[in-house]
Amino acid sequence: MAASSMTMATGQERKAPRRVLLANPRGFCAGVQRAIDTVEQALSRHGAPVYVRRAIVHNRAVVERLEQLGAVFVQEIDDIPAGAVAVLSAHGSARSVKLAADARGLRMVDAICPLVAKVHAEVEGWYRAGRHVFLIGHLGHPEVVGTLGQVPSGAVSVVSRPADLEALDLPPNSAVAYAVQTTFAMRDADDMVAAIRERFRDVAAPRSSDICYATTNRQQAVEALAASCDLVLVVGDVMSSNARRLTEVAEAAGTPHAVLIAGADDLPLDLLAGAATVGLTAAASTPASAVDAVCAALAAQGFVLEEAEGLAEQVRFKPVSLEPLHPAPESGSLEDRLARLRADIDAALDSAIGHARGRDRRLAEAMRYATIGGGKRFRALLVAAVSDLVGGSYAQALRVGAAIECVHAQSLVHDDLPCMDDDDLRRGRPTLHRKFDEATAVLAGDALLALAFEILADEPTHPDPAVRAQLVLALARAVGQDGLAGGQMMDLYPPAKPSAQDMFECESRKTGALIRFAVEAGTLLGPCSAEERARLLRFAENLGLVFQIRDDMLDSIGDAQVVGKALRKDEAAGRKGATTLLGIEGAARQASELENACQEALSPFGARATPLRDLARFAVSRMH
Ligand code: GRG
Q: Pairing relation of β-strands 258-261 and 231-235?
């Protein structure tokens, strides 16, 4: 068909007019429209300049028009003045970008396409479920970079061709999952999924296709007309992944030539001269004005324009809220808040441990094993809740939370060593010295302890060096002779006949000290009156004891599977905890009285203290 049209086109007695077949649908999708609207509305609401990190969508003309309206496009968060309004691009951003924006005090508006946000949520869910995730996409594309940045590095492998799977060292019985870049070519994704399924038995898949409706519709529309065209023109930016996919799809569907053009100035005149039927489509990021200009130029060359039959798209997304985001997990149930905080803490720990070349990889692996992807994050949530209560920054609280989790992980790793509690299981997995070896466990603990102080002393934790010094001092006291180390000594070498007072003293140091530090650190991150601080510290004192008494109770009545470690060891070792001294009922009564004291300490804060109340409730009733 294409060849015979060409003959007609170049022959003397050509009758049929030369025509342009316009693919339907083409051009802007709902996600692109929403992102552009977001920048325009942010400009009218907050005034110029509004900063945009990276191209809001991949189209030069769109970016230039927004620049004329007062938008300033930058590459990195550091290029944006503190306190400014910043819009994040439709392609989605890594967690670290949002945390950097928050730490810089930016008023952040995230214009992520909701369909990309769906992929982020899937990837995070599979990572949490312990699956290795394949992201079918193009390495380096901003959408892929943003998706990778939702989980710690190494949790996701980017693959684009079946051959990429061969390079991976994963046994066939691994639990895996796949997600797809929203603008990936449908047929290539199908091939990739088939290759994954052939290699792995346990494969979790997205509930609905990750390739977005706009990519799907535009690829199908161009595929339907390509074979009848001598030439297919795709109007779009060279940076646009979905534009480039449209040229590939058109060529694969049988047109002899598919050319990506930015606008009317780029028309391939040599190819047009010999073409009778030209297909025309446009990427999801191409404005209608660019397509109109190309149509006008083709009409001027004698082409008749014809709309091809196709789908009418009705998709519209809710506008982005223009209330600048501070991504603090202040809303939702305790479980929701914990889930969001866990993901953020994992990302903060992953980036703090880092991937610097030349460092010992085994040590870094052991540090990640000890800290990432496990634990309730009780102490980190506590810092975030107190910081939020006193008006502190979430990003700063997250850094302090990560530091505390490093110390906590260190204490668990050392506590599990044969010279202390000699445990094989922690957080439902082999203890660190069992997974690695004892020397690595000692050194990973040492490095985590050093990292905790490094995080606290580093500038992004707080702009005021005096606050950073206070944080460092308070943590040093919490882990030293009067804190964890001293408490552990009392536990290992108790007096011959320990009294209830001895037991409380030991637990207050071993467990309470870090919980008290979490609360104290939170109060340092925002403005807090002396009275508020005293109440919060009282809350912390009682909470630490509640937490430890419940720990003792779980040792007697808990389910090892749920708790994730060996139980019934204290009594066997003759160690005196709350349950051995007070009995189960007595311990429960004591914990409940202490919880009441926690709630009383919070009473003047009213509803603002709900997250802290929830934590106290959790501490007294937890099963793990
Ligand atoms: C920190 C310098 C320094 C020394 C450490 C080994 C040691 C000295 C102290 C041991 C402290 C210890 C193991 C206390 C028990 C605290 C406790 C109740 C742990 C369980 O905490 P969860 O339930 O654990 O919050 P997850 O796994 O949820 O994080």
A: parallel
